[in-house]
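question for whoever is on the cluster today: can someone run the full assembly for these? two chains, 556 residues total. i dont have access anymore since they changed the login thing
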Amino acid sequence: MLDSLIQGILLGGYYAVLAAGLSLMFGVVRFINLAHGDMAVLGALSALWLVQSLGLGVPLAIVITLLGMAALGWLMQRFIFERALAGGFLVPILTTIGLGAALQNGMFAVFGSNTKSLGAHIGSLSWASWQLPGGIYVGQLPVYMFVTAVLVLGALHLTLTRTAFGRALRATSSDAEAASLCGVDPRRVQRGAAAIAVALAGLAGIFLAMRAQVTPFSGPMMLIFAFEAVVIGGIGSLRGTLIGGIILGVVQSLGALLSPQISILAGHLVFLAVLGWRLSQLAAAERGGWRLALRALTHKPDVTGRKA
Amino acid sequence: MMMQAMTAEPMLRASGVNKSYGALKVLFDVDFHAMPGEAVGIVGPNGAGKTTLFGALAGSFPVSSGSIHLAGENLSGTSAAERCRLGLARTHQVPRPFLGMSVFENVHVAARSGAGMDQATATDEAAEILRRTGLLALANRSAASLGLLDRKRLEVARALATRPSVILLDEIGGGLTEAELGALIDLIRSLQADGMTVVWIEHILHALLRVVTRLVCMAEGRILAQGDPRDVMAHPQVQRAYLGSSPE
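^ ran it for u. tokens below:
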């Protein structure tokens, strides 16, 4: 039980990184990137290709992949997402569904359909573990991944709260037009956000490829997990995303105690329960909102000028 | 960025501005200007196109035809952000604070992005503007927690942080008590004393007339009259359009 809890928490780090990019895109660009999981897989397969075909070391391959994914995010925002966003509500959804399908089949054509893993290239790290008191073994790789996740999300949090870019990003997220009237260029900020989001997807993909196996068609499942972590943790808060990821990881891990088949289902059920609860909260807030609107109307001071 | 009233060229000038949304035309050949350091009031009934004119000036949307110049520079094709950095600031009738940020951060982001200040200068500037607008005690509060008056103050504070040479104020007096209005008027006068050009849309005429030296009246997307406030208010067309009837 305790063992599963610890494994679940560590797994949560991976989910949080996966979810953070999706949440950032939605929060800043108001854009749900349904190809997010496929981009994660692209990151994983690109890193693998750099290692296997070019013979690069894993750390160097990770750095190159993340930089490449950031550039890809910037370019996609600049040339695809901005145009899709101008087309209304449906176009971005259709665009990213199509992009996801193209990515899956493109990766299938380039990398083949075999399952692949970075596990074979990271030496003893893929199986080494520490023994905790009570006979619990904790894998070193999951611990390193969790620590990396916390550091990455922490750095992102500091970027958002302490830097000029971060404040401009949060202002754009709150009200892009008002931000532009404060001298912020929302398009530049959104491109930056897309670069970070896609790099985060790439990092999550690399995590997955280290601890398990990926195929060109692993993306949709990753997207679902990312969605679940975002909804459980709440959009727009990195701490929430980390907590959401951890809850999802723990629930899946505890579910696996009951039966391996229940693991994923348990995550889905918790996601649905939180979604239902959030929707009911939203409905309640809307009723409160009406009361507030009525109060504002009774204070409307538009006759003063006419009397003067 | 602040300019002194030395030149005869308008600080802000709109020439022959038209704006249509499809078949709906909302601005008709609007010619408008404000001289350096001048305070200009804009009045008119609801739907007259006052706020649309502000949107056109600030670059919130492209105009259908016509041109807008700031300090002699043609603003055609420039974004709202670029106009802000050139010295044109605007507030909204319904305040639009960045809700997820603190009051201080709201102002700080405008100082950094709008005025291009470095971190330390922006911090000092934000503190000074918050003091000037009476928000310093609320600096660390979330903008979402502010009431209407403080949101209006924040709207002005954020515009000031961009170090504008021209500030467009959209009905910032609505909903304020007489005492609060008095404080607001003092603030706007102090901006003008600093050499800032002020353009103020306001329904509360007695407040507006304590500040502006020139009045523009709009109705149905057109400028009906402009000039000395008393002359404009006495104009028969203005009285028909704006007051509904001629005074007894």
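summary bc i know u wont read the tokens: Chain A has a mean pLDDT of 88. Residues 52 and 300 of chain A are 68 Å apart (CA to CA).
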